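Here is an idea for our session: we take a single protein and study its fold together. Which protein we use is up to you, so please pick one and set it down. Once you have written the record down, we can walk along the chain together:
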Amino acid sequence: MRPSSHDYHYSKGGDVTAQATETRTHTLPDLIEPVRRRRRRLTPYYLLIPSAVILVIAMGYPLVWQLVTSMQQFGLSQQFGQPAPFVWFANYVKLAADPYMWTVIGRSILFCFVTAAATMVVGILVALLMNAVNRSVKIVIQIAMMLAWAMPVVAAMTVWNWLFDWRRGVVNWVLTTLGLPFQDHNWLANPLSFYFVAMIIVVWMSVPFVAFSVFAGLTQVSDEVLEAAQMDGASPRQRFWNIIVPIIRPVLAIVLLLQVIWDLRVFTQIKLLQDAGSIASQTNLLGTYIYQLGTGSSDFGTASAVSIFVLVLTVAISAFYVRSMLKEDA
């Protein structure tokens, strides 16, 4: 049978058509696949854009406003619409020349590091306790800490003020019953005892976070490694410092960093203790000093300058810890 023209063209051009089809089949995926990989790499960043925009607006505007205000003479009249004249760095110069400002900075840094260290020690001990006891005791400890952590600060401070009240306080009653001279002792009148009480309260409120974080890190420590070290004759102290601490060091570092930042900016506990019966000028930390300058003295320009200083100090401390962590990882 004589082939038709359609069959003739198909058979004659079959090799060319197949070759072209094969070329398209191999080249299109090769061109599309890099685009898909690029999109997959960029997709997480695209998803972060809305959150990043909200974060920049929510944090950027107050920061810019604070920076601008710190360079202005912004007082009570400016709150009622009067223009605020720019004084540029005059507020910072005034603060740098003020001895009381440096006294407050020294108090704040000392209180911050002592309180953070105490919180870490107590939190680590509680985490080790939770890791060692049985399930029932562990649940009781966790519930107790959750209640302490979830309690509103104002409600907790009401209880603490009652405990350390100089007339009807439980602490004075217990110490007096034990034969110690604490009858009608005012814990908040003396700056040292004031900071001691404040440290107890801040540590009590912060220990649950540290304990839960460290306990989560302890779950990553292998029991087989600890048992092998114990069989080799390692004491509990050696197992803790040479095995447990190196494994949970990243957790300890970030928790300590957060604790230092929080304790440096502590405000509510100090302010409520001051309102309960202490002299603010003798017990001010950076947070209450900013409040006193702004709300108390209506000097919002100087208060903003102190706020910027606290921000710079926080970033400096954070950078130091982050740099140390990076050196350890390297």
